[in-house]
Every structure is written in C-alpha cells, then in structure tokens.
C-alpha cells in the first residue's frame, strides 16, 4: 500500500478526474490506489473476455462479463464510458448480437483509455 506522501504525486488533472471516486472512498487516497491496482489487473482481461464472448455469440456470458466490468470500474466513474456498458448488457441479455457488437466497437477504445487512466493512479 502506498502512503499519502506517494499520493502527492497525483497530478491536479488526476485529482480532478477522480474526485468523485476519491469521495466514494471517503477521501482515502490509499484505498483509491489499492482499488486502482485491482482494476488495473482485472479490467484488461475482462475487456478481452467480453470482446471474445460478443464476437463468438456467447451473449449470456457477455452480459455477465460486461456487468462484472461495469461493477469493477464504477468505483472510479459512474458516467461515461462506464454507463455505456448497460446498453451492451441489455443487448446481450436480449440476444441481439449485432447491437452488442456495435456497442462494443464504440465502447472498447473509450474503455481502454479509461482503464489506462485508472492504471496511472498506481
């Protein structure tokens, strides 16, 4: 776990970007860093798994994976791109592969960028 002195290296931009996340953890910067480390480890494989499941028409699994990814990342953001996962979850649950693919193609670069921002909190 990092100390508060290490957290001082967060940029003003990071502090502004993740102000709501910091508030959700009661201002505990150490906790935010721990959560960022977990997300940085778990989110990329979940996103890869989600892509495979949607492309392979395993939509039931895709809905589950997208929901897990949404839960993991919602500690850091409740707006876009995270809220964009809900329509993908809905499309997968409805068995609508073409819509799930369209949504995934639109969301994937935004999610990758967001995950990168979370990784930089470590």
Write up what this structure looks like.
- Helix content is 74%, strand content 0%.
- The protein has 7 helices and no strands.
- The longest helix has 27 residues.
- The N terminus is likely disordered.
- Helix 4 runs antiparallel to helix 7, helix 5 runs antiparallel to helix 6 and helix 6 packs antiparallel against helix 7.
- It has 122 residues and is mainly α.
Could you give a quick summary of the protein structure above?
The protein has 122 residues and is an all-alpha fold. It contains seven helices and no strands. Helix content is 74%, strand content 0%.
Task: Outline the secondary-structure elements.
Blueprint: H1 4-7, H2 12-17, H3 19-24, H4 29-55, H5 59-73, H6 85-93, H7 97-119
Order of helices and strands: HHHHHHH
The CATH class: Mainly Alpha
* Total number of domains: 1
Instruction: Compute the number of helices.
Output: 7
Outline type: elongated
| Strand segment tally | 0
What's the alpha carbon Rg, rounded to whole Å? Answer: 15 Å
Uncertain stretches: 1-8
GO molecular function, one term: protein kinase activity
Domain HPt: 37-117
Protein name: HPt domain-containing protein
Structural key phrases:
Four Helix Bundle (Hemerythrin (Met), subunit A), elongated, 0% strand, 7 helices, 74% helix, 122 residues, mainly alpha
């Amino acid at each position: 776990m990092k100390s508060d002195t290490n957290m001082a290296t967060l940029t003003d931009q990071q502090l502004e970007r993740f102000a709501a996340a910091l508030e959700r953890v009661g201002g505990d910067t150490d906790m935010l860093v721990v959560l960022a480390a977990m997300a940085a480890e778990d989110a990329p494989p979940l996103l890869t798994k989600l892509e495979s499941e949607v492309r392979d028409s395993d939509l039931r699994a895709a809905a589950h994976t997208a929901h897990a990814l949404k839960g993991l990342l919602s500690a850091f953001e409740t707006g876009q791109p995270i809220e964009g996962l809900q329509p993908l979850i809905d499309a997968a649950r409805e068995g609508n592969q073409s819509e799930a693919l369209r949504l995934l193609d639109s969301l994937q670069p935004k999610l990758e960028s967001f995950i990168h921002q979370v990784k930089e909190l470590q």
